[in-house]
């Protein structure tokens, strides 16, 4: 599935990452991690917990997504 993701998933999408056990909700695209200066496809927060602070953000790339629980909102 992850090889087929050519465009970004919409914000609000809920996903599972390879090796992960927690659902994550995407809240940002093309994010740079402050400590490492590395660029990632997505930033996310635990679902359904939501945003708590910047230290609780998860950064990952599209190839790490193994399952999409829910697609976020698409706007034409």
From TrEMBL:
It holds the Pfam family DUF4176. This is DUF4176 domain-containing protein. It comes from the Bacteria. InterPro entries: DUF4176.
């Amino acid at each position: 599935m992850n090889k087929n993701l050519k465009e970004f998933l919409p914000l609000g999408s809920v996903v599972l990452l390879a090796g992960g056990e927690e659902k994550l909700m995407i809240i940002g695209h093309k994010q740079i991690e402050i400590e490492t200066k590395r660029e990632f496809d997505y930033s996310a927060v635990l679902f359904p917990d939501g945003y708590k602070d910047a230290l609780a953000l998860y950064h990952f790339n599209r190839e790490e997504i193994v399952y999409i629980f829910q697609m976020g909102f698409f706007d034409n």
